[in-house]
Amino acid sequence: MRWSYLPPLMVYVAAGVSGLTAIVGTFYVKERLGLSAGFLAALGFWATLPWSLKMPLGHLVDLVWRWKALLVFLGAGLITASIVIMIGLLGHTEALRAIAPIEAWYVLSALLAPIGYVVQDTVADAMTVEAVPRYEADGTPVNEARRRSMHTTMQTLGRVAIIGGSVLVSFANVVLLRDAPNLPPAQVGALYLFVYELALVIPVVSVLGVMLGLWLRWRDAARLRAAGYAPAEVDAMLNAVGEPPPVNWWILGGGLAFAVVSVAVGLGDVPVGQEIIFAASMAIVLFLMWRLTRELDPEPRNVLVGTALVIFVFRAVPGPGEGLTWWFIDGLGFDPSFIARLSLIGSVLTLFGLFLFRRFMAERSIAYIVGWLTIAGTLLSLPVLGMVHGLHEWTAAMTGGLVDARTIAIVNTALESPLGQISMVPMLAWIANSAPDRLKATFFAVMASFTNLALAASQLGTKYLNEIFLVTREVKDKAGRVSVPADYSELGVLIAASLVLGVVLPFAAIAFVKATRFRSA
């Protein structure tokens, strides 16, 4: 472990601990906002969209390499603004209501945070390049084999930092929310407020990481100057990328135009605006993929296209949405404390699964892995569907209350969580291995944008399912009257539809790839 690894790792940790407010945020939306499950799925689409802009952001980082720390400060500012809005909603509700509707403030907060995290994540990826030194403290070059080993270590630690951060906040939520079920409403609100106030440490961690990086660079420069190297030589030794590349206006200008159009469509409430933006995003990314794949021979190009199709469809499968979480709370009585314990179990076992299935991920094709994950995920989702139809009541009656809804949820989470990152690791390896050597950065950015668009497609599908099968939780107005009654009667059909699509779509993609000239890696 080297000191130079810490700056990007601290930015990654900040991303990992971003889930600190997730449970509190879920209960806040359910208890205090009248947003429908379909609207929240649509909001999830817009919140996912910034991740498809990593390509122009990556090019921007290359252009302003020496000043990329400023982008981390920008991202930290956006994250801070998002958290401060939520603090205002919880602690100064009426003051914010006098300016704009509460729902509008929440939407703004939900959109600012992912933009900040995307900016910071893009810079952190770049920081991992300079975290691996090219020269020793005395100025002697680091040999290629050792540098390659250090790069592998750096990337492994990056994944551990993100998942480790999620484990840390899961444990924090267990401690913070342990008494929530027994508190009166006023104290519950104060507890929610404290969690968001505590979340202000998240942007601080990333900023401290950048400041540490600047200090380490100053220290290394001082050592090299003391060893007798001229300032120009010191600058060349410490600058990992040399001169910035020429501006690619296709990437930078196109990304800016896409961002402006997306904002205009979103604010203008254009009919089918999400579909328009998704189609435009997909067209841009497919065009860039087409341009890039011309660099490949026909055989690897077919493998790349087949692999991309399988992974995209697998990640684009729609889910049941927030209605299922609401039913867990209303129908099964899951409180913040219990959900925090489930989150902790899931985070720990997700980390464990990365090591448990390491050989499986390395030796099997992506089509095989996706097919296996599809079957396993479907089978592990059946107990949830069963509980909607009373499975937990039957098991509790048969076991004297031993196997109730919470027991089923814990066992199901323990079995399902190790699978959480299995689909991600082969995808990342596929992107890295498929990229031509002279176009690795651009290739990685375009393919990452494509696979991130699959998550946007999943949110669109989730919105459609929730518009067809309506699920509502109880919503009260300011006078305490019920304005929207709870109705979970269509939840079972909603989950069943999601499960059917979750099986049919990935296997249809696999069958198509197998039946055509395309293949998977």
UniProtKB/TrEMBL annotation:
Parts of the chain that traverse the membrane: 6-28, 35-53, 65-90, 156-177, 189-216, 247-266, 272-290, 302-318, 338-357, 369-388, 491-513
Membrane topology value: Multi-pass membrane protein
Places the protein is found: Membrane
Keyword Calcium set for record: no
InterPro entries: BT1, MFS_trans_sf
Keywords of the record: Membrane, Transmembrane, Transmembrane helix, Transport
Annotated Gene Ontology cellular component terms: membrane
Protein family membership: Belongs to the major facilitator superfamily. Folate-biopterin transporter (TC 2.A.71) family.
Protein's name according to its UniProt entry: BT1 family protein
Native source organism of the sequence: Piscinibacter koreensis
Lineage, top ranks: Bacteria, Pseudomonadati, Pseudomonadota, Betaproteobacteria, Burkholderiales
